[in-house]
């Protein structure tokens, strides 16, 4: 796994996406701290979740 800055990622997003598609995971850092990880989605057959269910999960009834 490689770590790159968010600034680098913004300038090289196409390259990073291609590397992730090939199976690499890449961590983005900001101010020297890891903040997000780019990983390939293994199963793209997931069903879409209705917005109402998402809202309920985050905000309750």
Features of the shown structure:
61 residues; alpha+beta; YefM-like fold; 3-stranded mixed sheet; 3 strands; 25% strand; extended
Write structural notes for this entry:
- By secondary structure, the chain is of the alpha+beta class.
- The chain has a domain at 1-41: YefM-like fold (3-Layer(aba) Sandwich), CATH 3.40.1620.
- The protein is built from 3 helices and 3 strands; from the N terminus they run βααββα.
- The protein has helices spanning 6-11, 13-21, 51-59; strands at residues 2-5, 26-30, 33-38.
- It has a 3-stranded mixed sheet.
- A hairpin with a 2-residue loop joins strand 2 (26-30) and strand 3.
- The longest helix is centred in the N-terminal third of the chain and has 9 residues, at 13-21.
- It is extended, with a radius of gyration of 15 Å.
- The model has no long low-confidence stretch (mean pLDDT 89).
């Amino acid at each position: 796994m490689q770590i790159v800055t968010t600034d680098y990622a913004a300038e090289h997003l196409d390259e990073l996406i291609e590397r992730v598609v090939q199976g690499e995971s890449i961590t983005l850092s900001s101010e020297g701290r890891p903040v997000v990880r780019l990983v390939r989605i293994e199963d793209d057959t997931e069903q879409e979740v209705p917005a109402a269910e998402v809202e309920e999960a985050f905000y309750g009834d």
